[in-house]
From TrEMBL:
Pfam families: Peptidase_S10. Residues 1-19 have a biased composition (Low complexity). Residues 1-20 are annotated as: Disordered. GO terms for biological process: proteolysis. This is Carboxypeptidase. InterPro entries: AB_hydrolase_fold (IPR029058), Peptidase_S10 (IPR001563). It comes from Brachybacterium vulturis. GO terms for molecular function: serine-type carboxypeptidase activity. Transmembrane segments: none annotated. The keyword Hydrolase applies.
């Protein structure tokens, strides 16, 4: 792989002699690269840096935009193609508080991190590899960091917390997409959004806002480890939905740790889903009306499915919270289990702790991403900044959901409205069986309840599963499969699901 610096365009660079020195300006660097693929070289440009976004203050003269944010992104554009017809994919992670380093270097970009996997995380010195499965083969790629993540910051004099909320973040990312399409004259290109985790919440909200506000119809949305209705996974009194939706994930994680010896993963998942959908709701609804014998029998059934002591299940009133499960599953071995990816483990600091104290999957994967993104941006992409690249930041909290007072935070209605309005938009949904952050059964349930025609569910929504966790691309077979599914999604090589849910 090689890189050659080019001269940025006059409208995208700053000058030391600029008389308006106090006004924030774009800081962009463009380099040329070539990726060797089996079918030949893929030549592309990478433009890394921050762009200044403006807004029209209320009551001011039309068009007098005021700077309010400086968003960081990396844009990859293939050379020698018809840009007007070539798809472009905008990608972002979630958190809230996560930069897009994960999708960028884990799955989509032309370079990828060698992170290792469960049981064999990579040790320093960390390295980047050419990504022969990059989505850049099929679409230009723009990875963008949300406010206060990566290098994205408010404009001088502005406050970051004004962008720390579902609606505010939605509007900011929408503005970035509109700005990018305009700057690069790509308004006729098929437009795709790809989000992971809370990034799927963002993608659904942004796609709907693009259509509602600007009549921009996206060609497709890739939802990786989705969360579309927070009520399906937020544990609190009076809400039994998370206990139901997490149980199949618990069973899959138990299988990964040998609790279902001799059985296939799919067989275990199918049994757990059948129990969750048929028997478990009635057991929880019965509550104190269950006899002691009925409760013991239910606890034994649940304990066998998820690999824990039935008495522990009974003491929990048949309701297993996910952080408690991750601390309990391998307690006898002195280990805690990963939340982002239940295949990962680490020694327990307190063998009697009621909840997992830290997430081994994030702890073991993040250092490789941190090291390589910093080296990559400065070394290969030649971009530098005097602020810290925040791969994960708690400074975005509290995150505002002010539009959802007294009701569950959800964007399923946004997604459904978009699909009703835009008949050509399609959706790819990717689930990791061992993901204890956004459980697959919760997503299945929400998608099945979308207010869209049944035939649209079968023809326009494709759902795929992987034997890994939230960031399934750290597992090589899953990375290859997901990359292939994304390629098919963008190129139209495969249709949606052949069978209805």
């Amino acid at each position: 792989m090689n890189a050659e610096p080019t001269t940025p365009s006059p409208d995208s660079t700053t000058s030391a002699a600029d008389p308006v020195a106090e006004k924030p300006e774009d800081h962009l660097v463009t380099t040329l690269h070539s990726l060797s693929l089996p079918d030949g070289a893929l030549d592309y440009t990478a433009t890394a840096g921050t762009v200044v976004l403006t807004e029209e203050p209320e009551g001011e003269e039309y068009g007098r935009g005021a700077a309010h944010a400086e968003l960081f992104s990396v844009s990859y554009v293939a050379q020698g193609t018809d840009a007007a017809e070539r798809p472009v994919m905008f990608a972002f992670n979630g958190g809230p508080g996560a930069s897009t380093v994960w999708l960028h270097l884990g799955l989509l970009g032309p370079r990828r991190v060698d992170s290792g996997d469960a049981g064999a995380p990579a040790a320093a010195p960390h390295r980047l590899l050419d990504n022969h499965e990059t989505i850049l083969q099929d679409a230009d790629l723009v990875v963008v960091d949300a406010m206060t993540t990566g290098y994205s910051r408010p404009a001088p004099g502005q406050k970051p917390n004004r962008h720390h909320g579902l609606a505010e973040d939605r509007d900011l990312i929408t503005a970035f997409v509109i700005d990018w399409l305009t700057r690069h004259q790509r308004w006729t290109s098929p437009l795709y959004l790809a989000g992971e985790s809370y990034g799927t919440t963002r993608a659904s909200a942004v796609a709907a806002h693009l259509m509602d506000r600007y009549y921009v119809a996206v060609a497709g949305i890739a939802l990786i480890s989705p969360v579309l209705d927070f009520g399906t996974l937020r544990f609190h009194a009076g809400n039994d939905r998370p206990y139901l939706h997490y149980l199949p994930t618990y069973a899959a994680i138990a299988h990964a740790h040998g609790k279902h010896s001799g059985r296939m993963l799919q067989d275990v998942v199918d049994e757990a889903e059948a129990f969750t959908e048929q028997e478990y709701p009635a057991l929880l609804a019965a509550g104190l009306r269950l006899t002691p014998e009925q409760k013991q029998e239910a606890a034994a059934r649940i304990g066998a499915l998820i690999g824990v002591d039935p008495q522990w299940v009974e003491r929990a009133d048949l309701r297993i919270e996910h952080m408690a499960f991750l601390a309990e599953l391998l307690r006898q071995e002195g280990l805690v289990t990963g939340r982002i990816d239940g295949r990962f483990t680490a020694p327990a600091g307190d063998g009697n702790a009621p909840r997992m104290e830290t997430d081994p999957s994030i702890d073991q994967l993040a250092p490789a991403y941190t090291a390589t993104i910093n080296q990559y941006l400065r070394g290969e992409l030649e971009f530098s900044s005097d602020v810290v690249y925040e791969i994960m930041s708690g400074r975005v909290h509290p995150w505002s959901y002010k539009d959802f007072e007294n009701r569950s935070v959800e964007v399923a209605s946004d997604l459904a409205r978009l699909l009703r309005k835009s008949p050509h938009t399609k959706v790819l949904v990717s689930h990791g069986y061992h993901d204890a952050a956004t459980p697959f059964h919760a997503s299945e349930h929400v998608l099945a309840q979308l207010a869209i025609p049944r035939e649209d569910y079968g023809e326009r929504i494709r759902i795929e599963y992987y034997e890994a966790g939230h960031m399934m691309y750290c597992h090589e077979p899953s990375r290859l499969a997901l990359s292939q599914h994304l390629s098919e999604f963008v190129t139209g090589a495969e249709g949606a699901q052949d069978e209805l849910g």
